[in-house]
Predict the 3D structure of the following.
Amino acid sequence: MEDQKDIKLHSGFVALIGRPNVGKSTLMNALIGQKIAAVSPRAQTTRKRIQTVYTDDRGQLVFLDTPGITKAKNKLGDFMLEAARNAVAEVDVILWLVEPSTFIGAGERTILEKLKQLKNKVPVILAINKKDTASDEQLAKSIAAYQAEYDFTEVVPVSAVKEENLEQLLEVLFRYVPEGPMYFDPDTVTDERMRDIAAEMIREKALKFLDKEIPHGIAVLVETFRERPDGSLTDIDATIICERESHKGIIIGKKGSMLRKIGTAARQDIEEMLEQQVNLKLFVKVRPDWRDNQMLLKEYGYKL
């Protein structure tokens, strides 16, 4: 058997970038085999940089799931854009996720410009997501369209939802991160606080169940996160922040029905994460224009 000391480990940081809604969080969750990042079909689901860790015998990949790169419309948008830029500036590999299309839109053009500014200092892997929805011919045309715009280090078609070609993607990523020791304990899957992940899970359910115009104007603040002394239960009190009184009524719903629906779904995810029963209480507060209020942004965890 090969001596353990002779095995060369490769470890490094991978920034996962792309326009909103392309499937970055779904891919990251699939790669690490655990739900950490909030997932929904709406833009701005990922607002903060979320760090997760994949470890196997080859070494360790630390993924930075970034907010979708798009034009900022308020101070929250500025924060999200800066979080994405910072992630790209400090990694060993960039993993750009796109859809299988020959149309390269404004969002992709913005990313291309950012990549060209790096002047090939960092390997850029292009992952064509949703390969299960495209024919081989469509995939080939999509790859050709992107390769005509940028000299990618490698191109890998994947399906985050179907978990197809993920091992091939991991092999490619390990090929380009540097040789070196692991940054985290092998059992670590994220360095995010459990209370922050719980807040994201609550916000995800709000994104899922609420009307389209409301979710972008909400935040979730976990005010209490406490395991009972006997270890039987974790008590969580969380507040959903919205910008209008009219939205507060919609979030609560008739006789509290919507708030219960959000809470029940979020509690199930949180219990699965904690492997423990959870007593989740949700409240709703109105904070007008919080997305443009620097003090409130910091209070709700949006700080670089």
Notes: The mean pLDDT is 83. The chain is about 35% helix and 20% strand. Residues 245 and 286 are 6 Å apart (CA to CA). The beta strands are 10-17, 50-56, 59-65, 93-98, 124-128, 154-157, 219-227, 234-242, 278-286.
